[in-house]
Amino acid sequence: MKIKVLIADDNSFIREGMKIILTTFDEFEVVATVGDGAEAVDYCRSHEVDVALLDVRMPNMNGVEATRLLTEQTNAKPLILTTFDDDEYILEAVRSGARGYLLKNNDPEKIRDAIKSVYNDHHVLQDAVLNKIKSNLLTGTQANPPATRETDNNHAAGPGSDRINRSLFTERELDIMAQIAKGLSNKEISKKLFISEGTTANYITSILNKTGLEHRTQIAIYYLTGEVKPSED
After folding, report:
1. How many other CB atoms are found less than 10 A from the CB of residue 114?
2. Whole-structure pTM value
3. Residue 91, class by beta-carbon neighbours within 10 Å (0-12 exposed, 13-18 middle, 19+ buried)?
4. Which of residues 94 and 2 earns the better pLDDT score?
5. Cα 62 from chain centroid?
6. Which of 2, 23, 75, 141 is packed most tightly, with the most Cβ within 10 A?
7. Is the confidence at residue 163, as pLDDT, over 90?
8. How far does Cα 203 stand from its chain's mean position?
9. Whole-angstrom Cα distance, residue 205 to residue 228?
């Protein structure tokens, strides 16, 4: 059975080009191409769509708002099609339920693999886009410090901490997760928290075991979204 894909992009050249690319693969059936988020939501409400490939910047309704409505009202799984200029939308799209991010300059095979991964309930987050999320998170934290909750370890609840089950983790593990979500390496985390790199690695292993995740990227996604389904690199 083929994966039913909807393509939403206000640029007809990109929209039709993506349709041509996807129809070269036997796995996909492009069921519709639309020019904005509102049309995408309307179509998915009344038709069976497995994966909705969404541009971010579109008239009438952008990809972020479409992602939120698709997640709330349909079974379609949103996959954002983005450019570096769209980084201000990325974090909000994650919170709205986007299953992944795909850069427009990807090879056809990577596009195929990303859509298949999203269809199979994985998150897809390219390193280049993950870096944008880290940058957004750091900038937002510095510009608008979140309300803090002091603990015995002076741990402050950070972005995303309200989306996870905090009772599963020690305060130090929550500290580690927050730093991973900010993009810090093990060495940087160790220096910031005044612990050894080996201790940091042990905490990360504990977090992975508790969540069933497999690597640091998934921890960042989990901390930001509360999602614990495994993702693919």
Report:
1. 25
2. 0.61
3. buried
4. 2
5. 16
6. 141
7. no
8. 23
9. 15
- The token pair that represents 224 in the structure block: 């930001």
How far apart (Å, rounded) are the C-alpha atoms in residues 77 and 57?
A: 18
Structure tokens at 147: 């309300």
Look at residue 89 and tell me whether its pLDDT is greater than 80.
no
- SS in 3 state form for the chain? CCEEEEEECCCHHHHHHHHHHHHCCCCEEEEEEECCHHHHHHHHHHCCCCEEEEECCCCCCCHHHHHHHHHHHCCCEEEEEECHHHHHHHHHHHHHCCCEEEECCCCHHHHHHHHHHHHCCCCEECHHHHHHHHHHHHHHHHHCCCCCCCCCCCCCCCCCHHHCCHHHCCHHHHHHHHHHHCCCCHHHHHHHHCCCHHHHHHHHHHHHHHHCCCCHHHHHHHHHHCCCCCCEC
Would you state the pLDDT for residue 87? 66
Which amino acid, 12? S
Residues 123, 220: contact at Cβ < 8 Å? no
- With tokens 């300059």, the residue in question is 105
Per cent of the chain over pLDDT 90 is 39
Q: CA 66, CA 37: separation in Å to the nearest integer?
A: 5
Report CA 86 to chain centroid distance, whole Å. 14
* Tokens read off for 200: 């940091």
Nearest of 90, 51, 87, 86 to residue 71 by alpha carbon:
51
CA pair distance 160, 178, nearest whole angstrom: 8
Structure tokens of 167?
Answer: 């009772």
Q: And the tokens for 113?
A: 């693999």
* The token pair that represents 61 in the structure block: 């309704």
